[in-house]
Amino acid sequence: MNRMEFSCMWTIFGCLAFVRSLLPVEIVEALTRWLRKLNSHLVPYVVFEIPEFEGSSINELYKNVQLHLTAKNLCRNARKTVLCRVKNSTNTTSTLAGGEGVMETFEGAKIWWTHAVHGFKTSDGSSQDHRSYTLKIHKRDRDRIIPAYLDEIRENAYNFMFKNREMLLYSNSKSASSMSRHLWQAIHFKHPSTFDTLAVEPSQLQTIKTDLDAFIAGKEYFRRVGRPWKRGYLLYGPAGSGKSSMIAAIANYLKWDVYDLELTQVRSNSELKQLLIQTTNKSVIVIEDIDCSVCFAHPRSRQPTSSSSELSFSESSEQGKLEDDGGRITLSGLLNFTDGLWSCCGNERILIFTTNHVDKLDAALLRPGRMDLHIHMSYCTYSAFKTLSLNYLTLENHHLFPKVEKLIRNGAKITPAQVSEILIQNRDNSDDAMENLVSFLEHRAWSSCKIHPNA
């Protein structure tokens, strides 16, 4: 329909409106119904209004649309926007100002959004704004896309709000009664560690990032193969090798909350189950120093040689005694926590164990399905040292770098934490930092009898 046809149509409507004032009410009502039917055939679009409030309650769909438009960066096409910050967010974002509109495409259909703001007077004389979003689509696309499009709006809004909120660090406490409804206590998580600041081999870092990316994108895959959507990591290596920093970097990379589970504060298997139930989706569950947390490291090795049935009975008896007498969790309870039926009560979870002594752990804890990826956090390598020198001293090269490389490659053991401390203490003088580091490495090399310090 061209402009001339639209002009003629509205001229007819104007004449009909004048005629209506001269006609009886019955005829006017019939004429109105006819005009509505005519309008529905002539106008090819359908319009939905989404108000900010539904009665006295906030309309969640209004908030979802606002976040969706921001997440898709559609507001950049508007002439006028409003700067704002989502609750518990760390970033400033922009939304549509009143009267502004944008357009996007979904599954081949064009969708127009308009943000309307109208002022009105309340009964007490004060002024308030009535805000709403208007969605306009072609009638032929209404039934085809609306359900799926609303689902996408909700998902985009949730993901945007989740990624921009403040992350939380949860811990369990023995002071919390097992009968309490809230077994976790939370504080804001603001650890600065990232994959860019970690002192690990680049190839190892890439392996971890690739595994995380595949896990995040694997919802349909895990569903298809019939496995819970979770992943287990074992971080093992000497104290000071960066295991805690790796956990923080993983959490920051995913933008997920962290649940730091202290097993020595858990009274029983049933309480461990309740703690698991109260964790949220998209979370990292951490058990640090698993070999020191509970006394079930290599429980099978402590059993006398016996048949499999006798061994099973003996283990069950010992586990029951641990739980009943000492109020401690058992190996079977922890195994059920990692991959039993109760481990399936949520989605998108990373479970991380750390240990300084991997050889002390029972093999049942280490198999795939429980600890899927084993990550060795070793002593400081030369490439890790270069990362630390760049982070702490902004130093990319130094005449002592070759000596550091030789000492490390010839077996002088030093942890990333020890290197970091030397660099921090001498951060105002890079020459002193390098000399002290070389001196420390030479002493380590001499002590280990690997090489002579003057070699």
TrEMBL record:
SUPFAM superfamilies recorded: P-loop containing nucleoside triphosphate hydrolases
Domain AAA+ ATPase: residue ranges: 229-381
Any single Pfam family the record assigns to this protein: AAA
CDD domains tied to this protein: RecA-like_BCS1
Keywords, ordered alphabetically: ATP-binding, Magnesium, Nucleotide-binding
Cofactor(s) the record lists: Mg(2+)
Region: Disordered, residue numbers: 300-324
Signal peptide location: none
Molecular function (Gene Ontology), one example: ATP binding
GO terms, biological process: response to stress
The name this protein goes by in its record: AAA+ ATPase domain-containing protein
Classification lineage: Eukaryota, Viridiplantae, Streptophyta, Embryophyta, Bryophyta
